[in-house]
Design goal:
This protein is mainly beta. Helix content is 15%, strand content 43%. The protein contains five helices and twelve strands.
Length: 393
């Protein structure tokens, strides 16, 4: 009975407090706090005999007192059902909706100019001149030694030989219309045999040859070409136990100037490269310094030189069969319509290591000016093999 009286007294006090402060409560405060249900803090502070939360927070106590004033004086603002709470607008229906980002596209912003430009930047442009010239070459020095005892069942003769070769190239190409190719080939080898009692050494390979071509591009890989070909030898040509000299430096000397077309050969993998030259119109000059050797090279008796018009074909190719074997071939076919000359040089190079190679050289030759042989006719043939040092640059 005492508790009920206390509760009624408390309600009277709260009502009086609400009436005193009703004029000071803004209507906006009702709209902010009224649409809710009666929560436990207000009941606990009002009805409990010993409330644990009362008096601990003045702000919370003032809010609870204001809410109690609303419950007692404006019960029409208090919503008691879920439907009424939704209609009041306090419960938001869009909180669980997915958030969509609105992306706005704008024009690309230009990079702002540099504000602090270094003062040491040069105000001139350096243009590097293109390199139209290419230089390359290769050479080798090889030795051969063959010993045969006097009682060897197949016979034979001991001998020593040496061969040196050097090839230099200087080529010009302006990547537009003109090209100029230059190749200088030099080979010299010596042979020593016991049976030769007259000569200590004889040359077994001797060549000095210059090829120069100027070309004007006509179509893809085709060039109008003016070709100069000149070749001779370094030393005397001798035979075993024979004092006669068969050839010598500028005896003979061949100079050929031809006008025609040049075709550049190059496969996609660049394993086969080279040129094919066709010169239907050419001027051939032969010079023999040793007068007595003139007839051996087609000159009239007592003459040192001779001019003749001719045509010729030159094929100069290099085929890298694989990383070890390379085949270099040169075919030269010449005719003055009175005489014919065909030379086919073949060199097979086997690369043992970076600086060591083995070479096989095959050289068939046809020349109807030379002496006729009962077995070979006008054909001549040379072959040798060697092993030694090689270098490419």
């Amino acid at each position: 009975m005492r508790k009920v009286v206390f509760i009624l007294a408390a309600f009277s006090a709260l009502s009086a407090h609400a009436e005193q402060s009703n004029d000071s409560i803004d209507g906006r405060f009702y709209r902010l706090f009224a649409p809710t249900t009666f929560y436990h803090n207000v009941a606990d502070k009002t009805l409990a005999l010993n409330s644990e939360s009362a008096g601990k927070d003045q702000v919370s106590d003032a809010v609870d007192a204001a809410l109690l004033n609303v419950y007692l004086n404006r019960p029409d603002l208090v919503k008691a059902t879920e439907t009424e709470l939704k209609e009041s607008g306090d419960i938001r229906n869009d909180v669980n909706l997915p958030i969509e980002n609105k992306v706005e596209f704008v024009e690309k912003v230009e990079t702002p100019p540099l504000m602090d430009v270094p003062r040491d930047i040069p105000d001139t442009v350096m243009v590097q001149k293109p390199k139209f010239w290419t230089f390359k070459g290769d050479g080798f020095l090889q030795f051969m030694q063959n010993y045969v005892s006097d009682n060897w069942y197949k016979g034979g003769e001991s001998n020593y030989s040496m061969l040196g070769s050097l090839t230099l190239e200087a080529n010009y190409d302006n990547k537009h219309k003109w090209k100029w190719d230059n190749k200088l080939e030099m080979k010299l080898g010596f042979l020593n045999t016991r049976s030769d009692t007259i000569h200590r050494f004889k040359s077994n390979e001797d060549m000095l040859r210059l090829t120069s071509k100027v070309g004007l591009e006509a179509a893809k890989n085709w060039y109008y070409t003016l070709q100069l070909l000149a070749y001779s030898q370094f030393s005397r040509g001798l035979k075993a136990n024979d004092v006669k000299t068969y050839s010598d430096f500028t005896s003979p000397l061949y100079v050929n100037l031809g006008l025609g077309m040049d075709y550049k050969v190059e496969t996609e993998n660049k394993r086969l490269q080279g040129t094919l030259n066709f010169s239907p119109v050419s001027l051939n000059y032969i010079y023999v310094d040793r007068l007595n050797l003139g007839p051996s090279f087609g000159l009239d008796e007592g003459k040192h030189s001779k001019f003749e018009f001719a045509s010729h074909i030159t094929a100069d190719l290099t085929w890298k069969m694989n990383d070890v074997v390379t085949w270099k071939t040169r075919l030269y076919a010449f005719t003055s319509y009175k005489r014919a000359l065909i030379e086919w040089e073949n060199t097979f190079e086997l690369r043992v290591s970076k600086y060591i190679t083995a070479n096989l050289f095959l050289f068939p030759r046809f020349d109807d000016v030379g002496a006729y042989d009962d077995d070979f006719g006008y054909w001549q043939f040379r072959e040798f093999s060697s092993l030694g040092f090689a270098y490419t640059f």
